[in-house]
Amino acid sequence: MASATNNQPPRQVLFVDDEPDFLLLVKENFGVLSAGHWCLHGASTADAALELLKQQKLDLVVVDVNMPLLDGIQFLNLLAKRFPDLKKVTLTAFASEEKRSACLAAGAELFIEKPHSDEGFKSVYAMLDDLMNWVPQQGFQGMLRRVGLQDVIQMECLGRNSSVLEIYNEHVLGRIYIEDGNIIHAAGGELTGERALQRLLALPGGSFELVPFEAPPENSISGPWEFLLMEAARVRDEIAAQKIPGEPEVDPKTLAAPTTVSVRVMETLICSGTGKPLYDAECTNVESRVTLLKTVAQHAAQLAQILPLGNFDRLEMQLADGRAIAQTRPDRLVFVSVTNLPASP
Amino acid sequence: MKDPAQQWLVDRASPPGMLGCGLRRPDGKFVCRSVEEICPPAKLEKLLEQFATLRAVVFAGRFSPRWSTWAFEQGQIRFVPRSDGWLLALVVRTESDALPSLDPLSQEFLALDLGR
Predict the structure, then answer these.
(1) I want to staple A193 with a disulfide (CB 3.0 to 4.6 A). Which of A203, A220, B25, B55 is the partner?
(2) Shortest CB distance from B66 goes to which of A288, A313, A320?
(3) Domains of chain B
(4) Residue A285 reports pLDDT greater than 80
């Protein structure tokens, strides 16, 4: 049994896997890597794991997806009901998008491929250790701030991320493509390139979603993102200055003038696939929204079992004064609520 | 003569792209109409029952939506609950002509006189 080398008691980590050889590897590798900070337990069946859970308070359970009798996903569901606060991770030798969705919907915080090398064990150790150290309440405090489209783009570029930002309101759908931290393409209405980027960033209201990167039909933008955003800000100010009171604000084709924008984004929350808040704007209760997103994912999985309609994308709620969207994808959870504004005369 | 709920499902809730639709009565009984094989009455009943049970859990203390739409890759499920206990489920194919009719049908259902 390992012992703590600092003031903190060792983390209690249980691995559930029907392969004794793998459990042995886990003990050897994570024992060395944790240097006494983890106390490792192994169980080769769900029964044995449940027995241990009755006797010992655990910090983390790592479950093999492919187990005989009660498979990993069923076991996760069971754990979610009996030990809702317990952190759970799934390991698999054969990862697939379907399995990943099912595991995350069943309450797993992470879905990881089984490591086969020293580097692999190091990487998995870092992820698991990080997960155990993560306390949601502390994680999102300090992230609360007003967020705009520019902020999200800036965040993606600074992080050298690749993603597609979908921007929409009731009249417009636009996309901004970011690859490795560079803005490479924008399209909205009939516009593409910098002009589309500028007009999209000048939209007076609407919603946006970050979706996984896919290659754009063309690369229409180049240059440093900082300059592109500065230029877009200048254009936005110009448009605002030229706006005639009472005139509609955005044309769906040119993104320039007409049609009344009648919604305002009230709340935005973007989380990782595991529910870790990444971005938050005026979210009144982040924890409650994360719970909602996870609950939605779970219930969507149950609806999908009744009627197979493919992967779940989002839940749209029609509210008395607006709409709320809870999007749950394997790699991203997004909550956006908008409120209706009185139409211009 | 068909009862008003059944008549409404037949008359109104069948635009192209609709896979099926169903109602859960306040007494827990069902009226379901399957349009395509993929969506038989038994599955519609299960969907309605599932949503009737889970509704309180999903929205508990957070929202009370007039209706909710669960969007999947190949279809969408719209649930419309009424304060008198009736619940409507509409299942439509994604990108079909039935999609734009979801809101008007939902509004219509909420205003429908279904008796007791």
Answers:
(1) A220
(2) A320
(3) 4-111 (3.30.450.30)
(4) yes
